[in-house]
Design goal:
This protein is of the alpha+beta class. The protein is built from 21 helices and twelve strands.
């Protein structure tokens, strides 16, 4: 072919041509030859797409992008001569469940680097999918850094090029529906964020085994495009929260909310550097991993906690432009994945913000306002003011992800006064300490403390600090705004309350670093010290609650601290080690 390429093996075929493994008789090397028949299929559009792929590839020189050697039209065909990648498509490896989590992240890093390179040169790929990602054999990875050798991106035939006219005709949408960004499916001009969306979707599928956009039919797929997708953390609770949130953010329907490829690349790098808490063993088949779970004593590999396999349909046929050779079994030269390192902020969320109840902050504020108005209308202005003081913190509640929505996890703060009624309020910092993000732990603990302080007047009982004798009777203040403000809320706006809230917030924030689940004896000592410090520090703050009085120890400080220590140990045992 073309006077120099000897065809050796047909690798794939489809509507866009035929791909052959060939030998370059001039330079004595193996290459991939793609032949596009200009008279077949869409005719001129196919020819234009082949030329577009050549123009895009000519701008790019990157180890994670398949290199183009030559492009030329001859008679009724267009030929693309490119690098031959000795490996498999990512689509095939996902279907076979053959990749470890670390390998998937390395593939993501390589693709992110390739896309950053392309975007910097005015090339938007627009068709990123597992079929267009080639994974080389492990034997060849030593030739390049791991973050570049893990994968190669191919097929720039649908790329958008700065300075070039659009490829598609009016009304056409170019790309693959199941991996297409919402703005791309609507026919709008796309930018880097469209590639970011597709990349995140590919990694989502590789990590979970499921493409959340793909439906049973093309029409079902179209209906799912543009919807907010199920969080990856729901499919893979063992993955670091920082990673799952970064991918969820990149899959936001609005391009403005996705962030950038560099931000996702940074998260992938940090996650790999710290290691994964749980990971699949590279190269082990699905059946082998099932045997490990059924017979955990038979193999040391069973000490890992593999992802449960997901049943899926057979892989799609290889795309016609895929330049791959058969791949050897994965993991022949791999080491077992590292255990999760020293960062506890990605834990499995035993106290998860209920992800099914994530509403815009304004919705929560409207609900709080409705409660306040209801109390005013029933002749309880004092209770309305108390509710206003309790719910005002919603205005600064931490949002979940890029959506800006606030989860219902803040409702857990109601446990603080409930525990206070039982004389166990001191256990609440251990509950707040189960949140995954440190800022959530801080906010929940501080808000729980504030609600506990306010609830004393509502229940007319000493729940933590203030004696009942120091509180006016409920009948004396619930019908008066001024009495509530002066005798219920104002006495709490002192340094002692602030210090108490900060103490609880600090205790909740550091709890995952204190109880790590690696040694029961060490954890027992650590949680005992944590509880003792918490119980001992609380009375030291009591003096700040009044200018002319001294208060005894908080109610139930010791019993609450003991219960908190037990909760911390039990929840860590359920989660597994950091």
């Amino acid at each position: 072919m073309l006077g120099r390429y000897r065809l050796l093996e047909r690798l794939g075929a489809g509507g866009f041509g035929v791909v052959w493994r060939a030998h370059d008789e001039l330079l004595l090397r193996e290459v991939a030859v793609k032949r596009v028949l200009l008279g077949a299929g869409e005719g001129p559009i196919d020819g234009e797409r082949a030329q577009r792929e050549a123009l895009a590839a000519a701008r790019l020189t990157h180890p994670a992008i398949v290199a183009l050697y030559e492009a030329c039209p001859v008679d009724d065909a267009f030929y693309l001569i490119s690098e031959l990648v000795d490996g498999d498509t990512l689509a095939k490896l996902i279907a076979e469940d053959a990749l470890a989590d670390e390998e998937i992240l390395e593939i993501g890093l390589a693709l992110a680097a390739a896309l950053s390179h392309a975007h910097a040169r005015g090339v938007i790929h627009r068709d990123i999918k597992p079929q267009n990602v080639l994974v080389p054999h492990p034997a060849h990875e030593h030739e390049l850094p791991r973050e570049l050798a893990a994968a190669k991106l191919t097929d720039f035939g649908g790329a958008s090029l700065v300075g070039e006219e659009a490829l598609t005709r009016t009304g056409d949408v170019l790309g693959t529906l199941a991996y297409m960004a919402p703005e791309q499916s609507d026919g709008h001009e796309v930018a880097e964020q469209a590639d970011l969306y597709s990349l995140a979707l590919v990694l989502y599928e590789a990590l979970s085994g499921v493409n959340p956009v793909r439906g049973a039919t093309p029409a079902a797929t179209v209906r799912r495009i543009g919807r907010r997708l199920p969080p990856l953390g729901r499919e893979r609770r063992d993955l670091p929260t920082q990673l799952t949130r970064a991918l969820d953010r990149a899959l936001a329907p609005s391009p403005r909310e996705r962030g950038s490829i560099e931000e996702l690349r940074l998260v992938l790098t940090e996650t790999l550097a710290r290691g994964l808490k749980r990971s699949r063993w590279p190269g082990r088949s699905r059946d082998a991993r099932r045997v490990d779970r059924e017979h955990p004593d038979d193999d040391e590999c069973s000490q890992l906690s593999p992802r449960e396999p997901v049943m899926r349909a057979p892989a799609a046929a290889m795309a016609s432009h895929t330049q791959v050779a058969p791949r050897q079994p994965l993991g022949a030269s791999r080491q077992p994945p590292a255990s999760f390192a020293d960062e506890p902020d990605d834990e499995g969320q035993l106290l998860a913000t209920p992800r099914g109840i994530r509403l815009p902050r304004a919705v929560w504020l409207v609900g709080a306002l409705a409660l306040i108005v209801w109390q005013l209308s029933t002749g309880h202005p004092g209770i309305a003011l108390l509710a206003f003081a309790a719910l005002l913190a919603l205005a600064v509640a931490p949002a979940d992800g890029a959506s800006g929505h606030v989860g219902a996890g803040w409702l857990i703060c109601a446990l603080a006064p409930v525990f206070g009624l039982a004389g166990l309020a001191g256990a609440f910092p251990a509950i707040a300490g189960q949140a995954s993000r440190w800022r959530d732990r801080v906010w929940l603990a501080a808000l729980g403390y504030w609600w506990l302080a306010l609830a004393g007047a509502l229940f007319e009982r000493r729940l933590w600090l203030v004696e009942p004798a120091q509180l006016p009777a409920r009948a004396a203040w619930e019908g008066s705004l001024s009495t509530t403000a002066t005798h219920v809320i104002e006495p709490l706006l002192v340094l002692g309350t602030l210090l108490g809230a900060l103490l609880w917030a600090l205790a909740a924030a550091v709890l995952p670093w204190i109880v790590r689940g690696r040694s029961a004896a060490v954890d027992l000592v650590a949680v005992t010290v944590w509880s003792a410090v918490l119980a001992a520090a609380a009375p030291m703050l009591d003096a700040g609650l009044g200018a002319h009085a001294s208060y005894p120890s908080p109610r139930g400080a010791v019993l609450g601290a003991i219960l908190g220590a037990v909760l911390a140990m039990v929840t860590r045992a359920l989660r597994g080690p950091v």
